[in-house]
């Protein structure tokens, strides 16, 4: 059973939303979720449920609501992680953190801030964006009417704003001031006295060449602080204003991150399951002789970061070398499979096993996407991707993408993740839509896919339960004749893809690379085992 409070209050079982009854029972569940895994005294519940005047039968009403909630929780009997206990001096709602969107949000924010502290602002921006995507509006928006003044709700809004500021900070650190400018303006308009937001908007305006707008932000917040509170802006904000007036060099756009393979040219070879020839699809318009196609090495540098890029072999041309790939960005319709691999870092964790498992997961994704006519995107662990429709778009690209997601999930779950459920967690999403394909030198001809469709994919990843394949509405409409879906939840959560429909398994002709005889699981990919963990 899963619970959602970052928006309207919702509870669901197996992807289906569960009715929660009257306002007393809903408020009781909401407050217990805000204090999940902690005992809440009965007198505290009386205060929060009836802030003005407590009726005589209030304790009986709480008892009835508790019995009703226990019956609701019984619908998730196959999943015994949620339980409402009677513990003196009140009640405790015991849940797993992964089943409540608030705790998922906090975990993602903590991870994003750790990535930012480590200097990995690209990963931090991605993680924080996913965390913010869990919000569907004001927390408990359907319950937070005039007489519901819970301090916990104010605290949640402060947490959201703090994460939003950290996301903007990461975006500014990697030169995405144009992309975040609109969101920054909206955030400042909603909270005009929040100085950090105003400072970030000033920096974004300045880097966009709008110095006068940046200074106008400072004048506006200074005027409001002086008029309302008799206060001057903080020292940091005043210093930022002087830097803008002086065109200080530290306000310039930061340099783009250096590609990882440039940072660590010497790499130690790590044995993996993937050491095979990656063959371009035979129907691709720019297919070349197999001699120009490289191996797919999986390597690890001294900083333990992996590099699984497809690196074309150099082509000799006189005294120079070149790689044969496109360089012109273009817009096209694609389907994208996104795979997010999460794992715990306990003291006794086998880091070598995690490294091996990550390489195995990419190997399976590469094999399955190749069989279905897709292309594995640049690796930015812990998120892997496969793109369908790059070179030769097909009408069934979305179906091929969902089939690849099924194959990956079933292959991994059936071999290792069930053996170590607390170690690795796999989340899979499939999205379809227009995207921009950019060909960056560091990615050796493998396009980087960006756009609204990919952004939707990351939001789906953040909400996808472990082991499920979630798809967007566009993907569902394009594949519903081949793929069976649960009726709920609908977007923004995405649809849960259940199985390939009977009779549809042969409707899509697979695009396969040459395979040597051997294991039925695929070329060079023996069945994954728990030993790698």
Automatic annotation (TrEMBL):
Q: Which InterPro entries match?
A: AfsR-DnrI-RedD_regulator, BTAD, Nucleotide_cyclase, OmpR/PhoB-type_DNA-bd, Sig_transdc_resp-reg_C-effctor, TPR-like_helical_dom_sf, WH-like_DNA-bd_sf
SMART domains (UniProt xref): BTAD, Trans_reg_C
Query: Which CDD domains does this UniProt record tie to the protein?
Result: BTAD (cd15831)
Classification via SUPFAM superfamilies: C-terminal effector domain of the bipartite response regulators, Nucleotide cyclase, TPR-like
Q: Where is the Bacterial transcriptional activator domain?
A: 100-245
Q: Which intervals of the chain are annotated as region Disordered?
A: 248-328, 505-533
Q: Which organism is it from?
A: Streptomyces albospinus
Q: Which family does it belong to?
A: Belongs to the AfsR/DnrI/RedD regulatory family.
| Listed name of the protein | Uncharacterized protein
The OmpR/PhoB-type domain covers 15-93
Q: Which UniProt keywords apply?
A: DNA-binding, Transcription, Transcription regulation, Two-component regulatory system
- Keyword Secreted: yes or no? no
Q: Fetch the PANTHER family from UniProt.
A: TRANSCRIPTIONAL REGULATOR REDD, TRANSCRIPTIONAL REGULATOR REDD-RELATED
Q: What lineage does UniProt assign to this protein's organism?
A: Bacteria, Bacillati, Actinomycetota, Actinomycetes, Kitasatosporales
Q: Where is the composition biased (Low complexity)?
A: 514-526
This protein's source sits in the domain of life called Bacteria
Q: Where is the composition biased (Basic and acidic residues)?
A: 259-269, 278-289
């Amino acid at each position: 059973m899963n619970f959602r409070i970052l928006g309207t209050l919702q509870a669901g079982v197996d992807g289906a939303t569960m009715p929660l009854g009257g306002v007393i029972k809903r408020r009781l569940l909401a407050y217990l979720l805000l204090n999940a895994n902690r005992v809440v005294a009965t007198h505290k519940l009386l205060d929060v449920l009836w802030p003005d005047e407590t009726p005589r039968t209030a304790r009986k009403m709480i008892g009835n609501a508790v019995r009703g909630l226990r019956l609701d929780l019984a619908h998730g009997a196959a999943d015994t992680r949620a339980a409402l206990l009677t513990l003196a001096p009140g009640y405790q709602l015991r849940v797993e953190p992964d089943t409540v969107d608030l705790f998922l949000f906090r975990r993602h924010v903590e991870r994003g801030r750790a990535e930012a502290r480590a200097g990995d602002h690209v990963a931090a921006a991605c993680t924080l964006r996913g965390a913010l995507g869990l919000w569907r509006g004001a927390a408990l928006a359907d319950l937070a009417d005039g007489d519901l003044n819970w301090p916990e709700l104010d605290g949640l809004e402060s947490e959201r704003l703090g994460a939003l500021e950290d996301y903007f900070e990461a975006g500014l650190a990697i030169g995405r001031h144009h992309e975040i400018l609109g969101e920054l303006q909206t955030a400042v308009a909603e909270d005009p006295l929040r100085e950090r937001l105003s400072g970030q908007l000033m920096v974004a305006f300045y880097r966009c060449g709008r110095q006068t707008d940046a200074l106008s932000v400072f004048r506006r917040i200074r005027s409001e602080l002086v008029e309302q509170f008799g206060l001057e802006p903080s020292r940091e904000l005043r210093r930022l204003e002087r830097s803008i007036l002086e065109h200080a060099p530290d306000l310039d756009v930061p340099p783009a991150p250096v590609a990882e393979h440039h940072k660590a040219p010497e790499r130690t070879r790590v044995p993996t399951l993937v050491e095979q020839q990656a063959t371009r699809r035979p129907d691709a318009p720019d297919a070349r002789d197999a001699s120009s196609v490289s191996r797919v090495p999986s390597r690890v540098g001294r900083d333990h970061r992996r590099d699984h890029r497809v690196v074309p072999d150099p082509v000799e041309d006189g005294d120079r070398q070149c790689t044969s790939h496109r360089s012109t960005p273009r817009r096209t319709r694609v389907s994208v499979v996104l795979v997010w691999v999460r794992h715990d870092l306990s003291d006794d964790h086998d880091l070598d096993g995690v490294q091996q498992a990550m390489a195995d997961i990419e190997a399976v994704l590469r094999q399955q996407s190749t069989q279905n006519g897709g292309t594995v995107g640049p690796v930015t662990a812990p998120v892997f991707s496969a793109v369908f429709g790059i070179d030769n778009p097909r009408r069934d690209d979305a179906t091929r993408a969902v089939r690849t997601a099924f194959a990956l999930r079933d292959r991994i779950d059936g071999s290792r993740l069930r053996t170590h459920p607390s170690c690795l967690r796999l989340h899979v999403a499939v999205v379809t839509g227009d995207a921009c394909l950019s060909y960056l030198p560091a990615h050796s001809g493998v396009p980087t896919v960006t756009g609204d469709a990919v952004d939707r994919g990351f939001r789906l990843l953040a909400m996808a339960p472990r082991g499920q394949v979630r798809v967007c509405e566009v993907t569902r409409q394009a594949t519903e004749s081949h793929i069976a879906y649960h009726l709920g939840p609908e977007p923004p959560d995405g649809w849960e893809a259940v199985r390939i429909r009977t009779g549809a398994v042969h409707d899509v002709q697979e695009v396969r690379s040459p395979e040597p005889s051997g294991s039925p699981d695929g070329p060079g990919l023996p069945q994954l085992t728990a030993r790698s963990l």
